[in-house]
Amino acid sequence: MYTQALNAPQSDERHLEDADKSARFEARVANEQRIEPNDWMPAAYRKTLTRQISQHAHSEIVGMLPEGNWITRAPTLRRKAALLAKVQDECGHGLYLYAAAETLGSSREELVDQLLGGKAKYSSIFNYPTLTWADIGAIGWLVDGAAIMNQIPLCRCSYGPYARAMIRVCKEESFHQRQGYEIMVTLSRGTDEQKAMAQDALNRWWWPCLMMFGPPDQQSQHGNQSTRWKIKRFSNDELRQKFVDATVPQARYLGLTMPDPELRFNDATQHWDFGAIDWQEFADVLAGFGPCNRDRMAARRKAHDDGAWVREAAQAYADKERARRAADNAVAA
Amino acid sequence: MSEPNSQLWEVFIRSRNGLAHKHAGSLHAADSTLALQAARDVYTRRGEGLSIWVVPSNAITASDPAEAGMMFEPAQSKIYRHPTFYDVPDEVGHM
Ligand SMILES: [Fe+2]
Ligand SMILES: [Fe+2]
Question: What residue spans carry the region label Disordered (chain A) (predicted)?
Answer without folding.
Answer: 1-20
